[in-house]
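User: Sequence for Tryptophan synthase below. Tokens please.
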Amino acid sequence: MACNLQTSFLPALKFPAEATLDKRRGNGLVVCSVASAADSIMTESTPTGSAAVVRSRPLSRREVETSERKMTDTTGKFGRFGGKFVPETLMTCLSKLEAEFNLVLHDPEFQEELATALRDYVGRETPLYFAQRLTDHYKNESGCGPEIYLKREDLNHGGAHKINNAIAQAMIAKRMGRKSIVAATGAGQHGVATAAACAKLSLKCTIVMGTLDMERQASNVLLMKLLGAEVKSVDGNFKDATSEAIREWVGNLETNYFLIGTAVGPHPCPSMVREFQSIIGKETRRQAMERWGRKPDVLVACVGSGSNALGLFHEFIADEDVRMIGVEAAGFGLESGKHSATLAKGEVGVYHGAMSYLLQDEEGQIVGPHSIGVGMEYPGVSPELSFLKERGRVESYSVTDQEAVDAYQLLCRLEGIFPALEASHALAFLDKLCPTLPDGAKVVVNCSGRGDKDAPTVFRLTQGSSPGDHKRHPVSP
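Assistant: Structure tokens for Tryptophan synthase:
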């Protein structure tokens, strides 16, 4: 039976022992006594609607090791991050989803069906492409430098890594008897992937998208509609679309399935997305061993909220000799206030049902993110990436809008490949990374999506200028 959203009571917030509450406003953190299920999963709130804020002290080595041992999917916690910060109304639904997820992980029939879909429908495996001209571009005066490889997720059906997760979750939804899929999208790649998966499996599909993103990603909106999806617009961008999609989901929990596209939200959502994206790293390891007989030295991926980065990184977390670099969107600069660099500038809090780093102001209000890469505009980040960054396993850096645009043009002209503006952030960091690496080091960059969707934006901003020629045609606020 569908829950009554208007009379749901919000449970009190409980934070891990490692965290301390910031006692602003004189009374610490006070949770609203009454809220709808939809609103409470969107942000555990104070009476003024702010996100829960946690000020953290540095963890000792012993605490880090203890947290690492506790980092299991069964608890939904990654150290102090993750969890289920949701009202009781949603706990049963999430528990059923977790049980089904754990079942399909060990179900040979499901795994065979998924492997067939990934091979014959998605088009896996994707190539590990040696970017010869890009490699030559970054060689020093002595002709030395790292070798650069691209994991070509842009060649998947739908043009991005998103289909890996979408097809798997759509199959789970059908097993659970759900008839209607609800999803939110920013850049549109998850929306296209979900619409395609629903068309294949004969499921009703509703995609929620912010009006700002619909204008910037018009080609993907058209594709979603051609695939039979209903596209609903909401004022704002990806974070607003996610909130509205959650409302749509909880409106009928018995028939709706919320197909989340990135590694955020309450458990088991982050673990599910990461699991279904981890095929990226598994293929990369195997391909690297075949190509040069050892693991990559450095992995680089853009970080919006975390799905493509974890997809590449997860296979190598235990390999301490493999550097893992996440590149966030610095927008107009980290000090400008217009960026999406959550790992670099965020603080710990609860949003959309889980604890992670968040972009928030001094009052704990969510700060609207900005990036020229639409898919990176989210104020939170994966709980697992939050944990890996805190323990020092993942390095985090950021690049500006202009640097991403330059990298987009550079790959187009050197390799004949259109990278998504999201993936262009990872490519842009090669400018800073390559001069620091020894000759012959193997660098794998996750080209998480194709960039024909972004070509109008890039051309409008550059008007045919050469990469790096941003003084004539700067990206403007």
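The chain has 19 helices and 16 strands.
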